[in-house]
Prior knowledge:
Blueprint: H1 5-15, E1 39-44, H2 55-67, E2 76-83, E3 87-95, E4 106-111, E5 122-124, E6 127-129, E7 139-144, E8 150-157, E9 163-164, E10 184-190, E11 200-208, E12 222-228, E13 231-233, E14 241-245, E15 248-252, E16 256-264, E17 283-285, E18 293-295, E19 304-312, E20 317-321
Parallel strand pairs: 2-11, 9-11
Antiparallel strand pairs: 1-3, 3-8, 4-7, 4-10, 5-6, 5-8, 10-11, 12-15, 13-14, 14-18, 16-17, 16-19, 19-20
Amino acid sequence: MKFTWKKLTAVFAVAAFSTLGLSALSPAQAAPAVYVGAKITLVSPVLTADNTSEAAKNQAMADGWVTNGWFGSGLVYQRSWLPAGSKVTLVYHVADSKGAPLVGQTVILRCNKQYSVSTAKITCNGQPVKDATGSADGGRVSSVTDVYGNVSFDVQNLDSTGETQPEKWTDAPTISEDGLDDYHAQFLPQIAGEKPDHSVITEFHYYTPDATKPMAEVFPAIPTTLQAAALLTGNAVVGQTLTAAPGWWTGNPTPSVKYAWYRCTVVGKTAATTAKPATAAKCAVISGKTAKTYKLTTADKGKYIRVGVTATNTGATGYSISKSTTVVK
């Protein structure tokens, strides 16, 4: 059976009227609080019109699905490319109707989304996923948002071969007559469902790398960008351990982070985006402490502690320094 765009659009119409519970991929758990009206966006990898397939055409189709009432407003639909056998971490930002991050919110990722004709062999968070069918997703996994309202899922492709490698990122994939030679996977994160959420559909087509014309990178480079500052949690008491949240960074490839801890004699009420605290902050680096956590010592008593984060990818390096703790007791 040949799936044209017109047929795929009709398929999504049927999907809109099907309601599914969690599959066996998700462990039994108490029902989480469900926020209705959440806005869910993909923040890593960073996908743009420059590294996705037929961006305008696909978004116009998604807008039509919203007009028909099948999905919540603002739906984003993007297709891109990955080499067969590759792993990608999908990071989503989850916010309420006013744009504030939803912290501690359970998010379900629909892997090989129902009616998507997804045929790639994949795992989501290490759990095997079946092909999509007309009545069910290939599988579902769940995770909880962090202090920035972000949630991540690891997707591993298990195919040794894939579709023909595109000439450029914006190319359309080749859809086979019978669908058996299409190696793609589609993902939809949700909280309350397709219509009450304002979400994003991401579809990856897995290709067989061509050594004669290699793709430059898994995704074209996008410089490191700070979206939210580093944070500290824990009690400012000698003997207690502080934990750093490194900040919310975006960019392709995903930025790597390093930590530095500072002991200060002046409270720092605002975060900074510099390599080290300003002279006025009266801070000294704590030698040898580069982990994500720091256990307070007697030398910290009466002082204030801050953490500095350096985030780097091939495009740029960025910095974030947290506000300080209260005075250490």
